Amino acid sequence: MANVVSQGAQESGTRTLRAEGALKAIAVDHESPERLRRVLEQALVFAGAALAAVYAPSEDGELLRLMESAGVPRTLYGLRDSYPRAGRSPAAEAHRRGQPVSLSPAELAEHAQARRVPSRDFFLTALPVQGDGGCLLAVTEQPDGFGDDDLRCLERVADAVAFTVPAAPAEAGELPPSAFSLAMDTGRVRVGDDLLDLFGLDPVEFDGRVETLLGLTVPEDLPSLMSVVEADHMSIGDRELEFRVLQPTGPPKWLRLRGRLLPGGEGHPVQLVGTVVDVSTLRSDVTDVARVQRLAAALATAVTVRDVGRAVVAALRRPLRADRIALAELESDRLVVTILDPPGPEAWPELWRSEWRTEWPDAPVRAMPTLAAALREGRARIWPAGSTLERALAEVGPGGLAVLPLPAGNRMAGVCLIGWDTPHDFGTDERALLTACAGLAGQALVRARAFDAEHELVGMLQRQLLPRSLPRLPGAVAVARYLPSTAGLELGGDWYDVIPLPDNHVALVIGDVQGHSAGAATLMGQMRTALRAYAVEGHPPDVVVAHANRLLMDMESDLFATCCYVDVDLEEGAAWCVRAGHLPPVLRYPDGRTDIAEAEGGPPLGVVSRADFPMSPLRLPPGTVIALATDGLVETPDSDIDEGMEHLAERLAEAAPTDMGLVADALLGNAPRSDDVALLLLRYDGMELRPLRESWTVWRVPQAVGHARRFARRTLRSWGVTVDYDAALLVVSELVTNALVHTDGQVRMDLTLVNNRLRIAIADASPRSPVRPTSIGWEATGGRGVLLVEALSATWGTLPVSGGKQVWAELVLGR
C-alpha cells in the first residue's frame, strides 16, 4: 500500500511539474495574441477542466468582464459575460476574499446568481488572480470534482494568468501593431500600424472609419464581416473569422480577425477589440474543386493506410480550420484508428484514452451509437456546437463535429472524424467538400489495406528465413536488426546468423543476395543453411566460404551473393575475417575509437568457381564491438558507400555500448528504406573463467591406450582433480580403444576442464558415429564400451569435424 501511495504522489508531482513546464514555455512567447488562451488550455490538459475562463475588472471597476475562455461553450454551464464585483457570484467572492471558492452541483443549483439551472451536473471552482487581475473560473464534470492535484494545477494556471491578462482598451494611447478597437455606436475604429499595412493604407491618410476598411475586402466576404460589425444580432463574447483583402496585383490576401465584444451598461455591446493577422501562408488560395483534385492525386500515390490518413489530414484539417481529425478503419465492431492529428492522447476524449492499446487507440463502435447510426446510413453527418451526443463524440468536437463514413463499394471501409473546439458554422461548400473527399478516401483505404496485408505477409515470410533468436554466448553479447525495404512488396535477400562453435568459438555471418524477389529470398535461405552446416563441421573460415561459393556455382543460379564471415575466439579475444564481396567489419574499441577493418576480400559468391578467400586477423580487447552491416544501411543513390561507412563508424563511436539493443536502434535511426537493411553487432567482454585445455596425439602402437591414460592422469593431477579420477580414465580408455579399433588414420585426444565439468573428446578420420547397441549377450566380445561411457558421463555425443568426427563425453566431477 505504501508503494501505491508513493507512486501516486510521484505521478501527481510529475503532473504539476509538467504543467509548470508548459506554462513557462507559453510565457516565453510574449508577442503571441493566443498566449492567454493557450494558458487557459493548460487547465483543460492538466486539471481535467471542461471549461476555463478568466474575468478581469472593467475600466470603471464595477464589473468582472470575461476576457478569454477555453474549452466547451460557457453557455452550457450558464456562465455570464460579466459579474458585478460587489455581487454574490463565485467569481466576485473569490476576487474579494482572495481565496478559492468551490461549489458542488447542488450548491450551484441553489446559488442566487445562477441565471438558469444547466442541463448537466458540474463542479465550479473560482480562484483569485493576483495583482487585481480578476479571477479564474474552472468547470469540470468529473464525478468527484477537482482533486487536490487538479487544484494545484489550477493555481499554477492562475499564477500564469496574472502575467497574461491584457489591459483593458483605453480611448487614448497607442495600440499594439496588429490590434484594433471599434466603437460599435459610432463606427469609429482605431488600428495599429501593422494592421494598416495589411490593408495597404497610409496611417496619415486613414480617416478612422470602419467603412473604409470594409470597402477593401472581397465582396463575397463582406456579409461575414458585417455580421461582426453589426452587433445588434450578436451576443457578448469571442469572434473569429477569416476574410480576403483585395491587392493591387495578384490574388487577394487572407486575413484572420480575432476579437471580443465587450459589454457596456446593461449588457449591451459598446466596443469590439481584437487583432488582425496575415494568414496567407497558412491558407492557400485554392477552390474546393482544386482541393479535391489535390487529394485525389495524393491518394493515387498513397500505398499504406498511414499514407491515406496523412493525405486526408493534409487535405481537410487546414482548409476547414479543424482542431482535430481522426481516420479509422472499420474492423467488425471496432474502429482501429490509424491517424490522429494532433497525435497526443491528451487532445482526445477520456474514453479513447482508456481504450489506448499501443501507439493508436482501438475504440468500440458500440460505445458511440450516434457514430454507428451514421455508418449504417453511409452518408456524412454534421452536428453543430451544443448538439446532444454521447460523451466520446461530444468531446471530439465541442464546437462542431463532422462524421464522414468512408464508402468502398457496398460497404464502409472506415470513418473520418473532424472536430472543432469553438463553434463552427458549416457552409454548403464545406459539406460538398467533405462528401467528395469521403468517397475518394474510402476507395484508397481499401487499396491501402490490401497493400498492408500483403506487405505484412511478405515481412512474415522474410522473418521466417532469419534466426528467431540469437544464442547466449560466454563472454560476449550479440544483437541483430533487420528492416525490410518499404519500396514495393518484393522479398529481400539480406541475412545474418550467429553460429556457436566448439571450444568457445562463434561465427558471425552477414550476407546479401542480389535482387529483391522470391528467388533471392529462397537463395538467401539456402546460403544461410549451407554456411551454418559448413561452419558446424569444423572447417576454418576460408574453407567455409569456399565451400559456399562452390555450392552456389553448382546450383547454376543467375544470382550471386556477398558475405562476411568472422570466426571469433571468445577465449583469446582474437578473430579471423573472410570477405566475399561484402563490406568489412567496423570495430569500436573500449576507448571509443572506431576502425574500419582492413580485411582482404575475395569475389562475391557464385561468380568465380576457383576463387581465393584470404583470412585477415582481428584483435579484440575486452569491450570491443564488432559491427557487420549490409549495404542498405550505408549506401543511398545520393551518397557514396565509403562515405556511408565513415558515417557508420562515427555513429558507432558516439553510441554507448552498455545496452547493445539501444546501440543497434541508434545505428538504424535514420536508415534509408529504399533497400533491405541487416545489422549484426557483437560486444566482446572476455570470458571471466577460461577453460583449461590439453591435447594429445594418439599413435597407433600396441601401448597406445596406456599412453593416452598416462597423459590424462598427468593432466588431471596438474589441474588438481582428485575426485572421479578412475571414471575419467575409464572413459578415456573406452573412447580411445573404440577409435583405434574401428577407424584408420590419426587420432587426437582433447581434454577441457571448466569449473567441475571435464570434457573428453576423441577425434578420428572416420565419419561413422558409434552406435549404441540395443542388447548384448553374455557371449558378445564387444559393444560394451559405448554403454560404459553413457553410464559414467553426464552427456555424450558426436560432432562432424573436417571429414571425420569427434566423439565427446562430459563428466561432472564430484557429483
Automatic annotation (TrEMBL):
Pfam family, one: SpoIIE
Annotated SMART domains: GAF, PP2C_SIG
SUPFAM superfamilies: ATPase domain of HSP90 chaperone/DNA topoisomerase II/histidine kinase, GAF domain-like, PP2C-like, PYP-like sensor domain (PAS domain)
PAC domain boundaries: 239-291
PROSITE patterns xref list: PAC
Source domain of life: Bacteria
Keyword entries, A-Z: Hydrolase
PANTHER family (alphabetical): STAGE II SPORULATION PROTEIN E, STAGE II SPORULATION PROTEIN E-RELATED
Protein's name according to its UniProt entry: SpoIIE family protein phosphatase
Native species: Streptomyces massasporeus
